[in-house]
Design goal:
Number of domains: 2
Distance between the termini: 20 Å
Helix content: 55-70%
Mean pLDDT: 92
Structural class: mainly alpha
Radius of gyration: 19 Å
Shape: globular
Number of strands: 0
Number of helices: 17
Largest sheet: none
Oligomer: single chain
Amino acid sequence: MTLVLEDWDWDDLKTEDSGVWEVFLYPVFLGATIRSAQAIYISEVLHDVLEFKAVQEIESDPIWSKKIQKILERQLSSIKGTLGEGLKKAILKAAIQQVESLDLSRTIGDAINFFKKHKVNSTKIADLQNDYGGTLDLVDLFAREIYNFRYVKSVLWLYGCGIAEDIVPPNAHVTRFLDECRYPGFGWSRNLPSDWQVFAPACRYMRDVANQVSLELGVTVTPKQAQTAVWYLQACRGLLEPGYKHKLTPGKLVDFLKVQKWSIHDLSTRLDDVEQIEDLTLALKTRS
């Protein structure tokens, strides 16, 4: 946790309207089998055509999806022999499926209408910085009104905007951690509840975790910071084969960073870069 606090930069507010839209694009492509690095990679591939001004034509252009598909197919044909080829290929093919099924155009179209309807811009985000109830309301609206988004992606979008320090996304990283910590209600093996059902207890218990860590460290730790520390651990575990996952304890991850002479920022850079994932995985496996 101390290392996370030393390099903390997740509360930098987006001060331009374009930035508020751009950080929305990253969670669009996240999924159960899609790594953070892959979502970042595909949002960069499509960055120019998914800028807010560029997507205004989505409803009036009958071949919008075909244009996006051609960009993805060109990229797919250009990655042979590049670093991270397998991960790139997987996300490009997944994105092509989203385009062909019109899922992507529906999500983007819903988001455009949402931003206009609710006047979502940098000023609104700044106003929500210390407004817990208003932030929860926006998450709830986002999850309900934008196709294929729900609570996890909505919280991650607000994280990208630099706010939402008192809430956490009810994703697998958080729920697995809370189960390991013996908080009740998170040890499912089947019949997983909807994320809206998990959202409130996940936020409540991660606030408890943050309070405990705050007392131990003698500094204020927010739920957002606590879940970020969990994310680094679980994201690294997620790179490893089943036999290695739980060998990677928080202490071992800290030792690994010390041996590598990496800060949390260095680790984050590698987790977010699709071309560095394989080397990171090998290094973690060697040290686990």
